[in-house]
Amino acid sequence: MLMALISLTASAQSADKLYEEGKKLYDAENYTEAFPKLKAAAEKGHKKAQYRLGRCYDKGRGTAENDKLAFQWYEKSAKQGYAKAQYQVGDCYKDGDGVEKDRKKAVEWFKKAAAQENAEGELALGKAYLKGKGIAADKAQAKKWLKRAVNNEKGGKEILAELRKEAADGDEDAKAILTLIGK
Hints:
mainly alpha; disordered N terminus; 0% strand
């Protein structure tokens, strides 16, 4: 029993080490070298590595673009409770990327991400409520989640800037969102 525990701990440590090395390379945009390290850590069950591996497949970074594999890795990470991956799974369901399009499942995943204060999840959930896609339209809920998104400490400023840019470019949805939240 003790040996199994030691082995499990060593495996977890090596997954963490592989992830950290892979993340450093990924962040330096050295995707070709990052990919095998992230893949090895992801296969050991590291949720952040699984998410990053999904990004690699999603964007064709260090490997060929593959929406189905991107979705599978995002989902593995999301099922471990990683908010960024939960948002990505929702986005895949919303657009039908790597999985059959399903707005209701998209909203379920956006709710999970938003519950963890993920700004993109909050924005996506607010938009779903605003448009009534995958969930009954509810202007009060839309306003609540959209305000949370733009006020979020992690990513809110970027979301607000993007909405303002889209509105300036004539995007009617972005204009409606900014009007609704009073920005």
